[in-house]
Write a structure and sequence with these properties.
about 110 residues; mainly alpha; about 0% strand; single chain; F1FO ATP Synthase
Length: about 110
């Protein structure tokens, strides 16, 4: 326990020294790959979780329509609006990912 705590503190103290030892203008190469990774992970999470949300919304709407067939029109309208809002989240994440990939990063 004590050894890992000391190692953590030494690593935390060494990181700023490594960051300040970089050459001026030479730090451009590391930010772009991390932006691509962040965009990919963000889009994967958004698409997967939006898919789960859409599946749950449709399942609940179909269940509600089966219980109350008279309200099927209103339930379907609310479901379509909800699905559009859920899908807009995935589109917003896609736009943010594209911005991350094509922005000129000042270093």
């Amino acid at each position: 326990m004590r050894r890992s705590l000391i190692l953590t503190f030494v690593a935390a103290l060494a990181v700023p020294g490594i960051a300040l030892a970089a050459e001026p203008g030479g730090g451009e190469g590391w930010l772009k790959p991390f932006a691509a990774i962040a965009a990919g992970i963000g889009m994967a999470l958004a698409a997967g979780l939006c898919g789960l949300g859409q599946g749950r919304a449709v399942a609940s709407a179909v269940d509600a329509m089966a219980r109350q067939p008279g309200a099927a029109g209103r339930i379907q309208t609310a479901m379509i609006i909800g699905l559009a809002l859920i899908e807009s989240l995935a589109l917003y994440v896609l736009v943010m990912g594209v911005l991350l990939l094509f922005v000129k990063w000042p270093v």
